[in-house]
Design goal:
The protein has about 250 residues and is of the alpha/beta class. The chain contains 10 helices and 10 strands.
């Protein structure tokens, strides 16, 4: 199965603006940023909305339900997603439900996934996280999600100093100017991620790549050894002869 490029969107609590950000990304890449999309090869976009529930897991794909006015899934469709799925599931079984949802969207080039737990189990190629509001309202495990994020949209930058190292930070006020910067950051990350994958496949021989070659890829792309190591694991490529403990 070909796995679509996955962009995960999470937030510190409900109502923080995850859907608004997801729709902005979809709209940008399916209309406003169509030239960039064509260049990257990501022409067909979809979306997954995750809702935490105590009921048995369910993947809603009924177009009538998804298009109902006022639903987040309707906003995603109007934003430009050619396919949208609504995953309703307890977090405890998401590891079984989400692969099925991704399989149903395997014909797409890229998928925007909304929901913290979905990020945890899917391990998206890029993660955007919205940090806002009273910390008493924050869900548990927020520090992990912040550390996993590539882009953080913040309301209050205090307390992010250590977590923010090497990340792209933006004020969460999605003014036209700031939204443009966020979307440019997403484009840049997508380009780097695609280049990384291409470089890994190009340098690998029989499913293996030397430590020296992996280090050169990291240097050429301006990314950390950890990112190269993580991508190698994702692609099933083994980094051999590493004596420096980098991978």
């Amino acid at each position: 199965m070909d796995k679509p490029f996955i962009i995960g969107i999470g937030g510190t609590h409900s109502g923080v603006g995850k859907t608004t950000l997801a729709v902005s990304i979809l709209r940008h890449f399916t209309s406003e940023g169509s030239a960039i999309t064509a260049k990257l090869g990501f022409n067909k976009w979809g979306a997954i909305k995750y809702t935490n529930t105590t009921s048995p897991p369910l993947i809603v794909d009924d177009s009538v339900i998804l298009a109902q006015a006022g639903k987040d899934t309707s906003r995603m469709l109007k934003g430009g997603a050619s396919q949208v799925l609504w995953v309703k599931s307890p977090p405890s079984v998401l590891h079984k439900v989400l692969p099925d949802a991704i399989k149903r969207l395997s014909g797409l080039d890229a998928v925007v996934v909304e929901g913290n737990s979905a990020i945890e189990f899917l391990k998206p190629d890029i993660v955007l996280f919205i940090s806002a509001g009273d910390k008493n309202r924050w869900k548990s495990g927020i520090q992990w999600f912040l550390s996993r994020a590539d882009i953080i949209l913040y309301e209050d930058a205090s307390g992010l100093s250590e977590i923010a190292k090497g990340k792209r930070l933006f004020n969460r006020n999605l003014s036209d100017r700031n939204e443009s910067k966020v979307l440019s950051g997403v484009v840049s990350l997508m380009i780097n991620k695609k280049r990384l994958k291409e470089e890994m496949y190009d340098k690998a021989v029989d499913g293996k790549i030397s430590c020296a070659a992996a280090m050169k890829i990291a240097k050429d792309l301006g990314i950390s050894y950890a990112e190269v190591g993580a991508e190698a694991n994702e692609l099933g490529i083994k980094i051999k002869n590493c004596q420096l403990g980098c991978f």
